[in-house]
From TrEMBL:
It holds the Pfam family Thioredoxin_4. May be required for disulfide bond formation in some proteins. Keywords: Signal. Residues 1-28 form the signal peptide. This is DsbA family protein. Belongs to the thioredoxin family. DsbA subfamily. Residues 34-214 form the Thioredoxin domain. PANTHER family: GLUTATHIONE S-TRANSFERASE KAPPA, THIOREDOXIN-LIKE REDUCTASE RV2466C.
Length: 215
């Protein structure tokens, strides 16, 4: 375990440094900018690219507020807008503390393949407490194995230089867009904020989405 942690810490240092400034502000969804244009590495569901309405979520698998939104709001949002292809839903990765664990979680999701990406993301959010009760590595490895990766594939995945560099570019893109916290939501480039909430509420998202659909 020590060898893995040393290797991963060394490989992910650049991504961790890049994300550190935003990570300290990740407890609130606030800020400006966000969803303008497509970003390399975007993961999407629902309507095809070029849809009338695009909803972008910036989130982290280690963000407790993101996990609450995922548990309480995502199922209804998905049923109303994603499964019906009314919107293009884009998920963008923004690692928050512990940044190394979040980065590794995103790498595992990508190594699992496009068809399992969201399953891994949702599983990590649903089991965040395991990161605290066991260890980040054990939590991540269990999730990777459940997605069909061997322990060796897991080790190779989270220490892949090119993958870490690509993650760093996604973090830099978020910074350039002015995103300062997770979860953050944008409907056609306009941020939707629910004061005091765990991310944007379904009601507030619906108001913004339905207005765009009606245009």
């Amino acid at each position: 375990m020590a060898n893995f942690e040393t290797r991963f810490a060394r490989m992910s240092r650049r991504a961790a440094i890049t994300g550190a400034a935003m990570a300290t502000m990740a407890l609130a969804a606030c800020g400006a900018g966000g969803s303008k244009g497509a970003a390399e590495g975007d993961m999407g569901l629902g309507a095809a690219e070029g849809a009338k309405v695009t909803v972008v979520e910036y989130a982290s698998v280690t963000c407790p507020h993101c996990a609450v939104w995922q548990a309480k709001t995502w199922p209804a949002f998905k049923a109303k807008y994603v499964d019906t292809n009314k919107v293009r839903y884009i998920f963008r990765e923004l690692p928050t503390p512990p940044v190394d664990a979040a980065t590794a979680g995103f790498l595992v999701a990508r190594c699992a393949g496009p068809d399992k990406y969201f399953d891994v993301i949702h599983q990590l959010m649903a089991t965040q407490q395991e990161m605290l009760t066991s260890s980040p590595r054990d939590w991540l490895l269990r999730t990777a194995q459940a997605a069909g990766l061997s322990e060796q594939q897991f080790n190779d995945c989270v220490t892949d230089k090119e993958a870490v560099a690509a993650m760093e570019k996604r973090v830099q893109f978020a910074q350039a867009q002015g995103v300062t916290g997770t979860p953050a939501f944008y409907v056609n480039d306009t941020q939707v904020i629910t004061p005091g909430g765990e991310g944007a509420s379904l009601a507030d998202l619906s108001t913004a989405i339905d207005a765009e659909l009606a245009k």
